């Protein structure tokens, strides 16, 4: 069984995807880490994330980079959202995401285009969202524990800018798949959101 979990920054999709993977005993891929690795690889090479050739070179990142805490910073998220707009970068990362989704037994993947591009055939698709203020508050709490001097206003601005880039780009824009279930976590605790997610997946897959 493939479960696709898409949604904007800090909506809670990674938390839900990990919980679904544990519940169903499936492997999980946070596809955002791939794009964050490309963005960090480009900036560490003094390249320009907005330059397609630099961004494509960044796709040949050392797999060990995926474990680097630097990928969790907001700067990495910004660089990722810039490199991810290049069709060549999306093409270069496509096969490894599809291979992960198609492995025997299935998988859970979270990102922006899982239900629309990577695995449109997935029997269960969630589009996880929350208000921009709630998402910014969640990300602020997360970053405040990691980075000195981060402000809520700068986090909100980054979230809104990333939303705009992710949904406004021509290549694989962030959008709810026609057959995806919407899950707004604005007023839900993590546990309540996870239980709702499981119910939605069960409703889609009960007869399979
Ligand atoms: N329902 C919730 N209530 C409160 N906090 C939440 C909820 N869901 C997730 N969080 C917290 O919000 C932060 C962001 O969650 P998560 O990483 O799952 O979001 P995401 O959509 O995967 O973000 P991104 O796409 O930017 O990586 C984490 O600190 C997480 O613990
Ligand atoms: N399937 C995906 C996943 C991510 N992106 C881009 O990467 C940025 C960072 O992703 P996070 O999930 O770690 O926030 C994100 O803002 C997107 O621009 C993507 O394009 N496709």
Automatic annotation (TrEMBL):
Residues 3-202 form the Cytidylate kinase domain. InterPro entries: Cytidylate_kin, Cytidylate_kinase_dom, P-loop_NTPase. It holds the Pfam family Cytidylate_kin. The keyword Nucleotide-binding applies. Belongs to the cytidylate kinase family. Type 1 subfamily. Coiled coil: none annotated. Signal peptide: none annotated. It comes from Sphingomonas montanisoli. It is found in: Cytoplasm. This is Cytidylate kinase. ATP binds at residues 7-15. GO terms for biological process: pyrimidine nucleotide metabolic process. It catalyses: CMP + ATP = CDP + ADP; dCMP + ATP = dCDP + ADP. It comes from the Bacteria. The lineage of its organism: Bacteria, Pseudomonadati, Pseudomonadota, Alphaproteobacteria, Sphingomonadales. Its EC number is 2.7.4.25. GO terms for molecular function: ATP binding; CMP kinase activity; dCMP kinase activity. Keywords: ATP-binding, Cytoplasm, Kinase, Nucleotide-binding, Transferase. GO terms for cellular component: cytoplasm.
